[in-house]
């Protein structure tokens, strides 16, 4: 399978290039970066810390996407939406790991998925997706007297908050309780907030250092507290999941898929 990586010089882009190089049955077809990037014209393998692979990082993402069977995108919302439109027009499958899209941008991804298969997940690590399933099941088993709080910490460079994974965990908890997350969430607390409403799902966000990703979901009541936790020590799990998803998309019909589909959870 020929894979294109957009945002190739970024942290995830480099990790994806390394993962593609060590995965059987796939090859790097093209790599692109923003036209202003200093990586333009450099060998993608060398940028990723590997031997030269002959693939030069270009500034034309549309050309990179057109050269592949599937494109992997861990960039920023505006770029991801533009890439999805190109993938839709070129008939190229897509794996999206970008988070922080607003409702209008999300609608455009759904529109593109009517024409091509798209796998979109807030987090592609196997352990996180098992955690999502556990959170939904736990929320369904425990009654609303158990307060649900989602705590997440990421590196200082992360631009969206709460993280996409934290919101996915909140949605999993809400699904377990058969409610809509937007009806019960509390993203911030400041000042005199009053007593915590029954059934609320709260979020707490920490940023600092080079933390790859920590997510903990608390189920707390008067007599006990249950904690479900996941910590990522590198981005390797994300890259591995993304390449696995790319291979899984081969032959799939147009539609919007998630890691639950890829992993059969």
List segments where confidence is low: pLDDT < 50 over at least 5 consecutive residues: none
Distance between the termini: 24 Å
Helix content: 25-40%
CATH class label of the largest domain: Alpha Beta
| CATH topology annotation of the largest domain | Rossmann fold
Characterise the protein shown here.
With 265 residues, this protein is an alpha/beta fold. It has 2 domains: 2-120 and 235-263, Rossmann fold; 126-232, Dihydrodipicolinate Reductase, domain 2 (2-Layer Sandwich), CATH 3.30.360. It is built from 10 helices and 12 strands. It has helices spanning 11-21, 44-47, 61-66, 77-90, 103-112, 126-141, 164-177, 181-184, 236-248, 259-263, and strands spanning 2-6, 27-32, 57-58, 70-73, 93-96, 117-120, 147-154, 185-186, 201-207, 213-220, 225-232, 255-257. The strands form 2 sheets. It has a 7-stranded parallel sheet with strand order 3-2-1-4-5-6-12, sandwiched between helices. A 5-stranded mixed sheet has the order 8-9-7-10-11. Helix 2 (44-47) links the parallel strand 2 (27-32) and strand 3. The mean pLDDT is 95.
């Amino acid at each position: 399978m020929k894979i294109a990586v957009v945002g190739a010089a970024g942290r995830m882009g480099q990790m994806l290039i390394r993962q593609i190089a060590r995965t059987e049955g796939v090859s790097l077809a093209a790599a692109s970066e923003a036209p202003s990037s200093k990586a333009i014209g450099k060998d993608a393998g060398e940028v990723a810390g590997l031997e030269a692979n002959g693939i030069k990082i270009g500034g034309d993402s549309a050309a990179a996407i057109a050269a592949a069977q599937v494109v992997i995108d861990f960039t920023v919302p505006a770029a991801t939406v533009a890439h999805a439109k190109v993938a839709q027009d070129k008939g190229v499958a897509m794996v999206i790991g970008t988070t922080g899209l607003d409702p209008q941008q999300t609608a455009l991804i759904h529109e593109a998925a009517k024409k091509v298969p798209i796998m979109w997940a807030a987090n592609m690590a196997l352990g996180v997706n098992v955690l999502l399933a556990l959170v939904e099941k736990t929320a369904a088993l425990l009654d609303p007297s158990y307060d649900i709080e989602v705590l997440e910490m990421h590196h200082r460079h992360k631009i969206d908050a709460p993280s996409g994974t934290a919101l996915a965990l909140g949605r999993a908890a809400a699904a377990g309780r058969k409610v809509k997350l937007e009806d019960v969430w509390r993203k911030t607390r400041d000042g005199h907030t009053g007593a915590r409403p029954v059934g609320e799902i709260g979020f707490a966000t920490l940023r600092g250092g080079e933390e790859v990703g920590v997510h903990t979901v608390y189920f707390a009541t008067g007599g006990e507290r249950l904690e479900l936790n996941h910590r990522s020590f590198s981005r390797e799990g994300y890259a591995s999941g993304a390449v696995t998803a790319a291979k899984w998309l081969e032959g799939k019909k147009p539609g919007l898929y998630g890691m639950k589909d890829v992993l059969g959870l």
